[in-house]
Amino acid sequence: MKIPLFPWLFLIPFLTIFFGVNVFLVSGQCRKDQQSLLLQLKNTLVFNQSLSAKLVKWNSTSDCCEWPGITCDEGSGRVISLDLSFESITGGLDDSSGLFRLQFLQSLNLSFNIFSTALPVGFANLTDLISLNLSSAGFTGQIPNDFSKLTKLVSLDLSALSFPGGPAVLKLEKPNFATLVQNLTHLTELLLDGVNISAHGNDWCKALSSSLPNLKVLSMSNCYLSGPLDASLAKLQSLSMIRLSGNNLSAPVPEFLANYSKLTALQLSSCQLNGIFPQAIFQVPTLEILDLQYNKFLQGSFPEFHQNLSLRTLLLSNSIFSGTVPQSIGELQKLSIIELAGNNFTGPIPYSMANLTKLFYLDLSSNMFTGTLPSFSKSKNLTYVDVSRNQLTGEIPSSHWEGLRSLTYVDLGYNAFNGIIPSSLFAIPPLQKIQLSNNRFGGQIPEFPNVSSSLLDTLDLSSNKLEGSIPSSVFGLAKLNVLELSSNKLNGTLQLHRIQKLPNLTTLGLSYNNLTVYASGGNSNMSSLPQIKKLRLASCDLGMFPYLRNQSKLFHLDLSDNQITGPVPGWISELIVLQYLNLSRNLLVDLEGPLSLPGLSILDLHHNQLRGSIPVPPSFITYVDYSSNNFSSFIPPNIGTWPRLQIVDLAFNHFRGNLPNICLKTWEGMMEVGNRSLEHIRYDPLKLTNGLYYEDSITVTLKGLELELVKILTVFTSADFSSNNFEGPIPDAIGQKHASVKLIDAISLYGVKLIEEFYRTDIINNKMAIFLRGAIVLPQIGK
């Protein structure tokens, strides 16, 4: 018997009420139309099934409201929340997608996927959305104007990882920022980090204050915003988080920020801030995070702190804060992260910091702190300590490090600490880096008590006054990557092949001790060495060339001052990544082959017995020292093809013929080309050392006086041709008004048989001193 359709429709609500029956449900809570849209969405999305934790589990046999990432309304069975974050989705989302017909969605999260497409306009169909999170989802291009139709939004997150100066993933042009937010009046959270907004201070500040009166979280880092912060922002009294790092605000920090009674985070790093930072902001009772890093024109000092402050994270690195750190910092009992590196703080490190029991990260490096180091033994969660490059003194009691079972990083370098190294420091199980270089520590190096379980990867004790032999336990540190013991008073003997017990070692420094290092000349004991990148064995009484032919990753080699005899082995040219080579102050007599090293930047062969023609290094050499050898030929013409050369020393040889004019006209590294940056000469093995670089000393001879320059400005240039048999006229390039050498800081010609007196007055614009026949001829002095 057929039953008319109308009566059945009439009965549906009653069946639902009295018997709990919902004819639109597939099973449990799931509505059939909702399940169909979700399965359609799954089938159209492109995703990595092996990495999926949600989509891969969606199927038609189970209740869609139980699927991972899905939340349904209990009464209606409609999908109200969809979370597909971290699903490795790469495509399949367009305006016709089933996603945009889930019109009852209140929360949508597609963050951390890889869509790599423009934002679909279809998002504007989801007008019930309260929360929309598309952060780091890979969307690109213009944010559609229709997004302003999502008027119920309380939280909008379109942020993406970005870096100052890097490309923006999303942008706001048409609509601009003001148009986007004008209808989103319910927003309390706005996160647009990395979106190219490119708005001026007055515009974006007034758009926020007029359209978003309830805003609590404002996060717009790296958005190409300019300043200053307009006073209209003071209206947003509900603000708790302000994150504007990486914008070019170029203005002082306004006083009104101290009036936000609910402020918990203020992050303004890398904003080109200037002026004096208002001390009142430090005193905001609710403030937990203050980040002002990398504002090199921002001045400030600390006020006295009181107990009721909430500061947990204090980041002021690389600004120009000064003054002392008050003892009252010990009142900040919640303080866990302190970064004050690269400022001008003076005075002692407050002993009250010993009371910061929640402290786990401390960086006070590169300031002018004086006095002794306080104890951190109460900070049981401390993981990182860096007080390097200060003026700290005194001994460090072993008790300072006792009980620190979480410490992984310690850097006390470039201070004036003395006494013995605390043995308790070497006994901390999770410690990975110990850097104590350039101090006055004496005595012997302590043994490591837990060698087999040690995680230590860096041990730098160089430039101290340590004595005795190298402890045997050092060679049991299997994870060790850097071992620097140079410039101490260590003694004894060391077979170089012992380092094969350190399979991860990439940096070994033993220079300038009283050590005798034995290195086999054959490959029997050396072929099993780990792949070293930086090897410093200066003044180690080697006597012979160590066999390093298999060291294919070696970029720094210093074997100077070792009385090594014989020729420079031809296999040196097989070390194709070598950038720094110092073989000076030995007894080398010849080269077995050319120095065909494509990346070589610094070459030092001075004070040997090398003879014949000079080896011509690669074209991108920066520093060459062939002085004090027995070279006797003419200067080869291709010596003029060194565009980056800044320092060259050919003195005290037997070179003959004319001084090559072509060199001084083509050495572009000595030319006045634009403005040279005030950096230091260095070679940068960025691709080889995970971001580390080294600055090494070089030797420059001025008027016969040998000077070691530990850090030399890239604007410094020097050429020394003195004490040779050059003859003929002074090259035209020297002294010409537009000569390539007019920025050379020092050029030595004394002892050279030049036939022309030097009376030119137009040389190098007061920039250069000329050493001629033993006398200094200053610019503007002449006939």
Automatic annotation (TrEMBL):
| Any one annotated GO CC term | plasma membrane
Question: Is-annotated flag, keyword Kinase?
Answer: no
What is one Pfam family matched by this protein? LRRNT_2
All copies of the Leucine-rich repeat-containing N-terminal plant-type domain together span 33-73
Q: Which keywords does this Swiss-Prot/TrEMBL entry list?
A: Glycoprotein, Leucine-rich repeat, Membrane, Receptor, Repeat, Signal, Transmembrane, Transmembrane helix
Where does it localize?
Cell membrane; Membrane
Q: How does it sit in the membrane?
A: Single-pass membrane protein; Single-pass type I membrane protein
Note the InterPro entries from the entry: Leu-rich_rpt, Leu-rich_rpt_typical-subtyp, LRR_N_plant-typ
Keyword Phosphoprotein appears in the UniProt entry? no
Predominantly, its location class is: membrane
SMART domains in alphabetical order: LRR_TYP
Q: Which domain of life is it from?
A: Eukaryota
Q: What is this protein called?
A: Leucine-rich repeat-containing N-terminal plant-type domain-containing protein
